[in-house]
Amino acid sequence: MPRRFPNIVLTGTPGVGKTTTAQQLVELSKSADPSSSHIPLKHLSINKIAKEQNFYDSYDEELQTNVVDEDKLLDHIEELISDGEGEGGWVIDWHVCDIFPERWVDLVVVLRCEDTNVFYERLTSDKKAETGETRGYEGKKLQENIDAEIFGVLAEEAKEAWPNEGQVVELQSVQAEQIEENAERIWTWCQQWVKDNAGRTDDSGG
């Protein structure tokens, strides 16, 4: 059965504003006129799921981070996104995108923060929007994330995993107004996707 609503991955290095963008996007879907734009988007924070379900198989001492058991994680996510006959509308928020099967996702948005000073500040002292905790990255973990952002590592990984034209979009996420604009832009894309796919979903029951 074709999806009624698009599934989107918001990806990028830690600190680029994935969670904030996802939350704003969901709020846009809630505040839209239901008679013309009923697209019930749902935020799926992979970090939150991995933590709540303890989907870790080891701990990397050098990078000071838990290593996720990707098989368990993917099995769990597949159950979630298949609920409700897989109608779609999921906004998947994680710093990795190339582990997700292509059939799950309609758009991959790579958020970027190419202002090194802003990015450094976010990683070392900014508070996470969803928890209020301080990131406090340092040492190799800090340097690897800075290098990944400077060289656009996640953007390249996304393009390799999703080679179709237009499937991967890079958006700058440096200033607060850019985050708001990005959410608006993705919401507009969602509305257009539903219009473009209305016939396909309507004909699916025959």
SSE inventory with pairings:
Layout: E1 8-11, H1 18-31, E2 42-45, H2 46-53, E3 56-60, E4 65-68, H3 70-86, E5 90-93, E6 107-112, H4 116-124, H5 139-150, H6 153-161, E7 168-172, H7 176-202
Parallel strand pairs: 1-5, 1-6, 2-5, 6-7
Antiparallel strand pairs: 3-4
Question: Could you explain how this protein is built, in words?
Answer:
It contains 7 helices and 7 strands, in the order βαβαββαββαααβα. It has 206 residues and is α/β, with parallel strands linked by helices. The chain has one domain (8-196): 3-Layer(aba) Sandwich (Rossmann fold), CATH 3.40.50.300. It has a 5-stranded parallel beta sheet with strand order 2-5-1-6-7, with helices on both faces. Strands 3-4 form a two-stranded antiparallel ribbon. The radius of gyration is 17 Å and the shape is globular.
Describe the structure concisely for a colleague:
The chain has 206 residues and is α/β, with parallel strands linked by helices. The chain has seven helices and seven strands; from the N terminus they run βαβαββαββαααβα.
